[in-house]
Write a structure and sequence with these properties.
The chain has nine helices and ten strands. With 295 residues, it is of the alpha/beta class. It folds into two domains: 111 residues; 164 residues, P-loop containing nucleotide triphosphate hydrolases (Rossmann fold). Helix 2 packs parallel to helix 3. The longest helix has 18 residues. The radius of gyration is 24 Å and the shape is elongated. The two termini are 43 Å apart.
């Protein structure tokens, strides 16, 4: 692989196929391949790395290399294209577990299909049991109050809500202790996080401890993701103090705002809708052009 990388690649501007399958390429070989780079091969459209010996470390090096974009819409043998999602490939995270064939079909359709502008974002709604998350979701979607005192969410429920031409994919996470440790499995960077708590049932110190636990979960799995704080059951209960809010915002700068809501009495609901909409405007991945067959 040393000879291929150092002697051939820099002098082959017309190269369109590079077959390196079954060459015992190790992590060290991948280092050489990446170091030389592919800027001299703008026409490269087929790359075979199957049946080699590089490990995950070598694979990560490959992902970080400057591969020609024309390569992305063709087969890269011996590697999983799903690893390029959110890295090099301009492919939605919905494809992160998809086989190469599906990803190739999608990316090729970007070239040939008519494109439709879409505005879509996931909203992860988390909080303790009894915070009123499901009731809040129903209020956002229908503008009606649905009392769910004895109805608990098992795991996670997903709903689609369209507001001001933006499709919000609402993920309503069950707040019981049994589910708490599984929430983070679903967390990803390209989401808005809404952290909720029942303002009637929690003291200020308990609230801050609760929020810090959720902040750590979000920051560990989705660093930089925007966060909205929402206290529920606002009727006749004071909101989070400005001092506590300032402390939290100083420590966690991705907090975009705080809303004190009451779904039954429609307190703060319109403000929350506005804050959600405003949050999408600062996120470049919300609005995109998608092939019509995938919309």
């Amino acid at each position: 692989v040393d000879d291929v990388c150092t002697k051939i690649l820099p002098n082959t501007t017309s190269l369109n196929t590079l077959a390196l399958e079954a060459n015992d390429i190790s992590d060290a070989g991948m280092e050489v391949l990446v170091r030389v780079g592919f800027e001299h091969c703008p026409l490269l459209t087929r790359f075979d790395l199957a049946h080699n010996k590089f490990s995950g470390a070598g694979w990560n090096l490959f992902l970080s290399s400057g591969l020609p974009k024309c390569l992305y819409i063709n087969n890269v043998y011996g590697v999983k294209l799903s690893q390029f999602v959110n890295n090099k490939l301009d492919v939605p995270t919905d494809f992160k577990d998809s086989p190469n064939e599906d990803i190739i079909t999608y990316v090729r359709s970007l070239q040939g299909d008519s494109l439709v502008e879409t505005s879509r974002v996931k909203v992860m709604i988390v909080g303790t049991g009894g915070a009123g998350k499901t009731t809040l979701v129903h209020k956002l979607m229908t503008n009606k109050f649905k009392h769910n005192q004895f109805e608990m969410t098992d795991g996670v429920d997903m709903h689609t809500w369209e507001h001001e031409k933006v499709e919000f994919q609402l993920w309503d996470f069950g707040g019981q202790d049994i589910y708490m440790n599984t929430h983070a499995m679903f967390f990803e960077t390209r989401c808005i996080y809404v952290i909720t708590w029942n303002s009637r049932a929690s003291s200020t110190s308990d609230i801050v401890k609760l929020l810090e636990k959720y902040f750590q979960d979000v920051l560990n799995r989705a660093p930089g993701a925007p966060i909205l704080l929402v206290s529920t059951h606002a009727k006749n209960v004071l909101p989070l103090s400005s001092e506590s809010l300032e402390h939290l915002c100083a420590e966690y700068p991705t907090i975009l705002g705080y809303v004190h809501v009451d779904s039954e009495h429609s307190v703060g609901i319109e403000e929350l809708k506005t804050k959600l909409l405003n949050a999408t405007r600062g996120l470049p991945y919300v609005r995109s052009n998608q092939p019509s067959k995938f919309v």
